[in-house]
Amino acid sequence: MEIIATKLNNKLKFEGNVDISNFKEGDKILITLKKYQGERTENQNKSLHIYFRLLAEALNDAGFDIKKTLKQDFDIPWTEISVKEMLWRPVQKSYLKKNSTTKLNKTQDIDKIYDIINRAIGEKTGVYVPWPCEDNLINK
């Protein structure tokens, strides 16, 4: 059972109903407190997909199709989805053991995966795409 609580006035306010019917009178219950990071926000999700699209466009513009970057069989242009499925998700699964981008926490996971991909793609192709933020999106 996982229970989420928020600190308010130096007390814990529990979210939702806490069902303790599985415990008998006198049972000892271990409660571990740790800071809840939360999953990615809607803006982070938008930025993630903008990054996928921008990296796909940058790789295509630089002449690095999927064949030149990953495989030798076909000339296949990059798309937002192929960046997500062929670059982002394999690194995410390998490094964080998380299958879905919806399970990424909002403070560190996205930065870690971005840094790994940006460094590897940059070293291999010379293509570096900055993380989408309001400042660099306004200039586009």
Describe the model.
The chain has 140 residues and is mainly α. It has a domain at 42-138. It has helices at residues 42-61, 66-69, 80-96, 109-125, 134-138, and strands at residues 5-8, 11-14. Strand 1 (5-8) and strand 2 (11-14) form a beta hairpin. Helix 3 packs across helix 4 (109-125). The longest helix is centred in the middle third of the chain and has 20 residues, at 42-61. It is elongated and about 70 Å long.
Q: Number of helical segments?
A: 5
- What series of H and E elements makes up the topology? EEHHHHH
The overall pLDDT average reads 83
As laid out across the biggest beta sheet, the strand order is 1-2
Helix content: 40-55%
- What is the number of beta strands? 2
**Which parts are unreliable, with pLDDT below 50 for 5 consecutive residues or more?**
none
